[in-house]
Amino acid sequence: MAKLLILGAGGHGKVVSEIAQLMKKWEEIAFLDDREDISEVLGMPIVGRLTDLPALRSEYEYAFVAIGSNTARLKWTEKISHHGFKIPTLMHPSSTVSTKSSIEEGTVIMAGVVINPDARIGRSCIINTASTIDHDCTLQDGVHTSPGAHLGGTVQVGERTWICIGATIINNINIGCDSVIAAGAVVTKDVPSNVIVAGVPAVIKE
After folding, report:
1. Which of 88, 110, 127 is the last residue of a domain?
2. pTM beyond 0.90, yes or no
3. 121 C-beta neighbours (distance < 10 Å), count
4. DSSP state of 54
5. Alpha-carbon separation of residue 115 from 68, 144, 147 (angstroms)
6. pLDDT level of residue 199 (50, 70, 90 thresholds)
7. Confidence band for 104, pLDDT divided at 50, 70 and 90
8. In what order do the strands lie in the sheet with 132-133?
9. Does 178 score more than 80 pLDDT?
10. How far apart are CA 82 and CA 115, in angstroms?
11. What amino acid positions are annotated as catalytic residues?
């Protein structure tokens, strides 16, 4: 069995590391993190800073970015790919993911998630706890669906967009890149790029 290096040992990194443990595919899991006040998380060691990544390639075959920022997560995923690490897809055993869906490398699927047929999830996405992605949805790279977010069928979401906790997107909605769907929002109309929408029904706030 190979070894896995996780970039980021914060709260998100904790959840990611537990999912990796539950998958039972790696003989060792360790972290890189720039903080100096901690040496381990959940019993797994922090073996260096983020800048130590290239030096650890010979020891770790796999690497995964557990950074909450959508932009930073994509940037570091490019770096680990450049250095020749294999990038897994991590799926919690309690998630329900259709075999007719597609999920790209660097994406994490958390506990209680449901992904239905012909959904397409891009690279380095976070599909967070108990969120649901219905049939024929497309999430581009770096999207984050927060806990309890629900997407109806045939929803399109652009790169790096953040769908916050408890938000609901009805069927056949197109959402642009780098937008934020606020917590609890109900989206009933298309959303352009680079905006924040909130409310029931959701409207552009800025």
Report:
1. 88
2. yes
3. 24
4. G
5. 21, 14, 14
6. very high
7. very high
8. 96-97, 114-115, 132-133, 150-151, 168-169, 186-187
9. yes
10. 29
11. 135
